[in-house]
Amino acid sequence: MMILINGGSSSGKSAFAEKLIAEQAKKEEAMAETAGKSMRGSVREMDLCHQPSCYLATMIAWDEECRERIRKHRKMREKKNFMTIECPVDLSRAEVPARSRCLLECVSNLAANEMYRRDMEDPENGAMERILEGIRMIRKNSDFLVIVTNDVSGDQGPYSEETEAYRKLLGGINCALAGEADEVYEVICGEPVIVKKKKREDTEVEERRTDRSVDRQSGIRLFVGGAYQGKSNLAMREAVTEENRFILVADGEQSPLEDAFNSEAVLNLHSYIRRLIDAVLGEYDGKRERDRVFCDNILREINERTAAVRDPAERTSAGETKMVREQTKETENIEIRIEEVMYRYLDMILEKNPNAVITCDEIGCGIVPIDKTDRLWREMSGDACQYLALRAAKVCRVVCGIPMVLKGGEA
């Protein structure tokens, strides 16, 4: 049994993980006592159940403060019948007793340690493979493995290239572990939320058979979540059908803005929105000149339509109505123009590509950015997700590669 526990800092992940280990120990003890009354060889079974649980510690003691924290945590765990095994790197070398209960905490430390270790020339290369191989070896030896990891995906940054590489590494590891785990939980404010639960084999077979036989939903399908959570893979899989196995993909990181109007999968909507903002503000390089022309055309169309229709109730989009109110006050507000361009862009996607599968990063968590443009980007991305979700046939939030349906049926 392997369980993955994900969540933000100080969300209650550790307490929940220890609770699962303690409950498993009690369960094994009760089973051993029952077996001892009715089966031969029960002494060995009871010995196994009374063994301490293994705590696989991944923190490196960089200074005296870290060392003191480690000593404190060790003392606390001893009272809970944990045996600590230090494994900050090279997890595959950890000596775990056969059939043991193990708690690995945490993957975010392990990823950083492997990525920045000093005994390798290029430690980042192969870091994910080393970590996953080590966890698979631990799983082979243990009967019950609980893994704690961190969610560092839920804000916009900006981050350095090095930090972004770390976020990508940890996101990839979390997705891989979630795919292999029997159960996955996200802990929020101390409350565990089930993301994935182990199912009976016959149920899984029936679900796979059903998935092949039913048609994909029509209408907009929106996949949201933190960075590197596996949204793109899920979206492209959702867009592929029996009739249409080859799809067009528009990516906000690199594709022209117009590609979102005719591509089955529209990835990184938040990046498209940032490009719209930069184009209207004039904050772009020569490669994005086409974005400016696109936005100018939208603004020209909006101005013509605004002049032709005086009643705000007749406007076609939320942004257009808002702009008319501002114009009535005879104000010129660049943010209103940006909003208008964004809402018109979203309306064009809805009109021209009504069955698109769209992904967007959640960038509204974390500290509010100091930069005004970054704040505007964060707010408009959230507004865009609300606008599309209201009109979508299906909305999913993706955690560690697993879609959690918020609206519109099965994942």
Any overview of this molecule?
By secondary structure, the chain is an alpha/beta fold. The protein has two domains: 2-198, P-loop containing nucleotide triphosphate hydrolases (Rossmann fold); 216-407, P-loop containing nucleotide triphosphate hydrolases (Rossmann fold, 3-Layer(aba) Sandwich). The protein has 13 helices and 13 strands. The strands form two sheets. The protein has a seven-stranded mixed β-sheet with strand order 3-2-4-5-1-6-7, with helices on both faces. A six-stranded mixed β-sheet has the order 9-10-11-8-12-13, sandwiched between helices. α3 links the parallel β2 (53-57) and β3. α9 (269-281) packs across α12 and α11 runs antiparallel to α12. The protein starts with a strand and ends with a strand. Residues 40-46, 200-215 and 323-332 have low confidence and may be disordered.
* Arrangement of strands in the largest sheet: 3-2-4-5-1-6-7
Number of domains: 2
Give the helix proportion (percent range).
40-55%
Average pLDDT score: 85
The CATH homology group name of the largest domain = P-loop containing nucleotide triphosphate hydrolases
Count of alpha/pi helices? 13
Radius of gyration: 26 Å
What kind of sheet is the major sheet?
7 strands, mixed
Q: State the end-to-end CA separation.
A: 24 Å
Low-confidence stretches: 40-46, 200-215, 323-332
* Topology order in helix (H) and strand (E) letters: EHHEHEEHHEHEEHEHEEHHHHEHEE
The CATH architecture classification of the largest domain is: 3-Layer(aba) Sandwich
